[in-house]
Amino acid sequence: AQLIAQNKAAGSDQICFQSSDLQDGPFRDYHVGACFTRDELGRRVGQYSDNTAAWMLMRTLGGGYAINSNAAAWGAKNSDFWWPNTTTADDLTALWFTEAKGKSGGTSAQNWLYPRLTKTIYEQGIPGGVPQSVTVIHKIGFLNGAVNDTALVLSPRGAYVLTVLTKDVPDAWHVIAAVSARIWKYEVARAR
């Protein structure tokens, strides 16, 4: 999103699949020679949490080192977003804070990114704890017992960031939604 905002990349850029990109995910149309626009890959990552699309995008952005360097510059000091793909709630919250303040591409980047992270197929976490009329811009992740959701929530009082990371929690989506509902209730009460 930042590169698009800076006119260093375009949503229409074609990115072609390589066999090393293949990861678990919902799409079955990846094969050597298949090419997708940056816009489409961004939609797949945001709306469906598709890992292959994420790998394709990250490869064109310089891979793990570049991703981790940018994330560290934006406040994620204790994370590794490539391998072994570890993070903290503090780091994800710091990234949202930096992004929401416009420090990672500004309004142009937000205009590209936010629609891809809103009304996803995974709305049972943080969005599940707030009224449907509320805009929740979020990214989920789940793997090996971890179920995570991090979001920018646009409340009546103003935006707030909420990150909930779980590991081996039964009915984790319900737990995340319950935490979200409590924070929403607190924010609405504060707004009065």
**End-to-end separation:** 35 Å
Q: Kindly state the percentage of residues in helix.
A: 25-40%
Q: Give the overall pLDDT as a whole number.
A: 93
Largest sheet: 3 strands, antiparallel
**How are the strands of the largest sheet arranged?**
3-4-5
Elements, N to C (H/E): HEEHHHHHEEEH
Write the SSE topology.
Elements: H1 2-5, E1 14-16, E2 35-37, H2 38-48, H3 51-60, H4 63-73, H5 89-100, H6 106-113, E3 136-143, E4 146-155, E5 158-167, H7 172-191
Helix pairs in contact: 2-3
Structure report:
With 192 residues, this protein is of the alpha+beta class. α2 crosses α3. The chain is built from seven helices and five strands, in the order αββαααααβββα. The mean pLDDT is 93. The longest helix is centred in the C-terminal third of the chain and has 20 residues, at 172-191.
Please provide a brief summary of the model.
The protein is of the alpha+beta class and 192 residues long.
Structural key phrases:
about 190 residues; alpha+beta; two-stranded antiparallel sheet; 7 helices
